[in-house]
Amino acid sequence: DNITIDGNEIDVGSGDLTLDVAGNIVLDADGGEVDIADGGTVIGRFRNVSSNFRIQSLVSDKDIVFVGNDGGSDITALTLDMSAAGAATFNAGATFNGTATISTDLNVGGAVKGNAGTRAISVGTAGSVAGGVQLWAATNQQSFIQFGDEAGTAANHYRGYLAYNHSNDSMSLGTSSSTRVTIDSSGAATFTGAVTANAGVVV
Predict the structure, then answer these.
(1) Which of 131, 88, 89, 91 is nearest to 110 (CA)?
(2) Residue 68 — φ and ψ, nearest 5°?
(3) I need a surface site. Which of 12, 83, 101, 140 has the fewest CB within 10 A?
(4) Would you call 57 helix, strand, or coil by DSSP?
(5) CA dist., res. 37 & res. 59, Å (int)
(6) In DSSP terms, which residues pair with 55 in a beta bridge?
(7) In angstroms, rounded to a whole number, what is the distance separating the alpha carbons of residues 24 and 62?
(8) Strand 106-108 and strand 121-123: pairing?
(9) 38 CB-near residues (< 8 Å, 6+ apart)
(10) Are the beta carbons of 119 and 113 closer than 8 angstroms?
(11) Distance between CA 180 and CA 159 in Å, rounded?
(12) What's the sign of the alpha-carbon dihedral 71, 78, 81, 118?
C-alpha cells in the first residue's frame, strides 16, 4: 500500500484517502480546532470558541462560498465577501421568518445614499431604470407610512402619517397624530383646519 504512518502524521503517496466506517466519523480535537489545508497552507478552520461553532476563512480577503446542486447544476447560493467585511450576497433572494434588523441604510437597486449621516431607505439607480416603493395590503386594510417620535407613548409612534384606505380608496395625511386632509376616491379633498392659499385659489 502507499499509506505511511509516522508519529502524528498519516501520508498517502498517491490518490485519495477514503474513510469508510459502519458508524459515524467523529473528529475530536481537544485543541478545539480542525484545519483545512492545501499543499501545507491552511485555508480554513473549524473552531470551538466557548462552545460556539466558528467557521473561519484564513486567507486574506478570500470568501466563504456556499454551493449546492440545483437540477444537476452547481449554483452559488451564498457568498460572504471577506474583502468587504463579510458582505453577504444571496443568489436567489432570502426569506426571513422573523424581524430583519438593519443598523445603517437600506439601498434597493443600487441606489446611492442621498443624506450622509442619516438612516435612510434609498430606492432606484442613477440610470434609466424606474425606482419606487410599493406598499401592499388586503382590500379591507390600510397601507401607510408613519413618522414617529422616540417618546414611548403609542400616539408618538405615528405623529405624522400618510395612509391609503383600500376599503374606500381614500388617502389621508396626518400631523400631531390626527388626520388633517382626506382625499376620497373621486378626488374631493376634506381639510379639518383652515386652508391658506398665498397664490390664490382657482375653482
Answers:
(1) 131
(2) -135, -175
(3) 101
(4) strand
(5) 11
(6) 46
(7) 31
(8) parallel
(9) none
(10) no
(11) 12
(12) positive
SS3 state of residue 157: helix
Q: Which amino acid is at 4?
A: T
- pLDDT under 70 in the chain at which residues? 1, 111-118, 126-129
pLDDT score, position 150 = 78
For residue 122, with 0-12 CB atoms within 10 Å meaning exposed, 13-18 middle and 19 or more buried, which class applies? middle
pLDDT for 114 equals 61
Looking at residue 42, its amino acid is V
Strand order in 33-38's β-sheet?
33-38, 41-49, 52-57
Report the distance separating Cα 62 and Cα 2, nearest Å: 34
Q: What's the pLDDT at 109? A: 77
Angle (nearest 5°) at CA 33 between 31 and 34: 130
pLDDT at res. 127: 67
Cell 383646519 -> residue: 193
Three cell numbers at 203? Answer: 375653482
Q: Rounded CA gap, 133 and 70, in Å?
A: 32
Length of the chain: 203
- pLDDT value of position 62: 96
Is there a contact between 54 and 35 (Cβ–Cβ < 8 Å)? no
At 9 the pLDDT is 86
